[in-house]
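Board notes (copied after class):
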Amino acid sequence: MITPSRIAGPVSSLPPISYARSADDVRLAFTVTGEGPALVFVPCVPFSNLQMEWRNPLERQIFDQLARRLTLIHYDGRGTGHSQRDVTDLSLEAMVSDLEAVIDQADLPEVSLLGRYLSCPHAICYAARHPQRVKRMVLFGGSARGWDTLSARRTQALLSLIEQDWDLFADTAAHQWMGWSAGDAGRAEADKIRGAVTPQIARATIRAASATDVTEQLPRVAAPTLVLHRRCLTLIPVDVSRSLARGLPRGRLVVLEGAQPTLFRQDPGEVVSMLVDFFQDGIEPAEAAPQPDVAGAAASDPAPLPASLSRRELDVLRLLAAGESNAQIARRLGLSTHTIERHVANLYRKIDARGRADATAHALRNGLA
């Protein structure tokens, strides 16, 4: 049996990587750092890359702060990062088996779980199966149904780039999550995505995740759970998070301020304090004062028309970014395919796009998708 390496207290270098074996003999890379109650970061598949996460200055600072009062367990999901890359089973059952293997290998009798986006169903399923072992749980940006977190038009437009241009996808995804003015940090995030996984595994993982549904598992989750949502986050409606919280016997919706789609890049000090208080002592955040539904208002306001594009060209661009073919766009708009081809050629010229991937990235970058 491999004994996981453990670093006590704040860390200043990359933690040693240990390995666990899943039930189907997949090799899983993980690290253990810090002191205090155990917190498992359930990996955000398919883009987990623990080594580059530890090398990121902001994430490293977050981990150091958490490790002062918590024992942190990070691992790369199957097919990603330093875990085994040549895998075929990317099902929910396989992902939960991986979580079980890492917790068992680290010899942790009791854990708390932090799930984000597509990893939320994995955390829910583990907590339902092991109610005596999961002390507390926090979920951000997720749902019991994978499709709920993937169905937004903008998300589908972004994911379509995986098929068209992997490098462009990585650059666009990084800046979607971090902001288009992120500069070097955005480029580093794009490198992290490229280094985490192949486009083939990314595509297969997302396809499997979109069909995941653990709704029937919710009543069996005994752990107190905070379901976090940012007030102005439009990619995932607040009703999705509210429904998840209501479905959990001890779930509670906590609305954070802002619109950042990542957990730690907005008000990181407040987020860390909230997590430490909850995971270590069970202290839940105070109820926030009611605020106007800014996200709902923003979603209902149409994006401004770019000066260079006609209204029809904008319609075509949005449908193109949604993955529709020229023939499909023609049928939807009641125009001939030849007319749509002319609109496509004109908008490519106006936005300096080489093809559909460039046009989709342009639409995402400018809030038009």
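Comment from the instructor: The longest strand covers residues 27-34. Confidence is low (pLDDT under 50) at residues 292-305.
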